[in-house]
Amino acid sequence: MISILKSFWAIFPSLFLYQLRVLLLVWRAGLSWDFASVMAINGLMRRAEVKCLYERAQEASGQGVIVEIGSYRGLSTVALARGSMKGPRIPVFAVDPHGFQNVLFSGAAPMIHPIALPSQQAVAGWKHPISLLWIDGCHDYDSVREDFLLWSPFVLSGGWVAIHDSADPKGGPYRVVHEALGEGNYDLIQKVEKVSVLRKFCSY
CA of 97: how far to CAs of 100, 119, 195, in Å? Predict the structure, then answer.
């Protein structure tokens, strides 16, 4: 019992600050409680980008899963998970060798399956079809291209691939997006800030 109390008091300050941020986002920014619970997590993504992922996860096909390459502090992870909870309720597989933080307080933890491996190792033996693939690992061209080539074959026809930091024409993610478009298997359906969302063509 004492150890449980100690554990609770150890996390209480972080829990309190998280809930305070949620309340402030609802009150001052006018966000819904659900989306505020996402944006209360500190991260590097802009609100519009996070909302894009949140909404895409809500609309994802229930025939596949969501895969995230690169989790950092867990902002995009929770956005995908909370979106999925309001939509198809499919699991989010978060691939990151360093793990991630800030998921515990969000209420989304049951939807999230962390895979603490590099992308190249995690894909070995992978069998699940993917409805939504989010690529946000290393941003150099070779890494982004490898993540795309390794994981995109599992994306369902009509499914989506979202790639971060793809707005800079000199950057690797931008190049990968335009190569994918040029190869003829994807079209660009949405661009929000630095996020590009590609749709895989249906095969009939």
Answer: 9, 8, 23
For 107, which DSSP code?
Answer: T
Q: How many CB atoms lie within 10 A of CB 32?
A: 11
Query: What DSSP string describes 36-79?
Result: HHHHTS--SS-HHHHHHHHHHHHHS-TTSEEEEE--TTSHHHHH
CB contact set of 78 (below 8 Å; sequence gap of 6+): 37, 38, 41, 102, 103, 106, 108, 112
* pLDDT tens-digit map of 44-85: 899 999 999 999 999 999 999 999 999 888 999 999 999 999
Q: 45-200 falls under which CATH superfamily? A: Vaccinia Virus protein VP39 (3.40.50.150)
Radius of gyration of the chain (CA): 17
pLDDT in tens, 107-166: 899 999 999 999 999 999 899 999 999 999 999 999 999 999 999 999 999 999 999 999
